[in-house]
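Hey, I was hoping to borrow your eyes for a little while. I've been puzzling over a protein and I'd love to understand its fold better. The fold is given in discrete form, as structure tokens running alongside the sequence. I'd be grateful if you could look everything over and explain what you see. No rush at all, and the record is pasted right below.
>
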Amino acid sequence: TPIRLYHELGARYAKGEADFSRVTTFNLDEFLGIGHDHPGSYRAFMQEHLFSRVNVPEAQINVLDGVAPDPAEECQRYERAIAAAGGIDLQLLGIGTNGHIGFNEPARELAGRTHRVVLKTSTRRSNAALFGGSVDAVPREALSMGMASILRARRIILIATGKSKAGCVERMLNGVITTRMPASFLQLHPDVQLMLDEPAAGKQSAVGG
């Protein structure tokens, strides 16, 4: 979803209109069991679409380590790193067709902090393009920021595009707050901005949203 935004940031940097030298980044999630050099990793994705296009110093790029020997400790390390950086000023989110944000999948309960998660089949299907189109090649688990980690950001921008996102966007905005729709918890945040294309916003006129 954010590829066009990343490329626009790169274009602005190339024109001298933006400087990222003082930016520190924290990726939301990473697949478990693959390293940063794997072409399907989110680290590789970010390198291709953003980091190679702007001047964020390598030392200020933070991504969860999918091959860390102790995933639980890696999650705790990530939380400590976020705290040491002073927290997150701007959280950029997408939304899954099942209402997940990050890899916080619909469930009876949601983890608050960075955690290990089993991915839904629909989520793995949505990420198949990163693995040559093969759903079977997509890892079954991931590491992800938790809902409390996300909601502690000072400002949140959520981007959604396409007709397939219209239903979950409508429920996120107008439905009940429920762990079965993780994105619905954004209703609790005081500073959220939505960036939608017309298809993704298609159900809002019908409900007055």
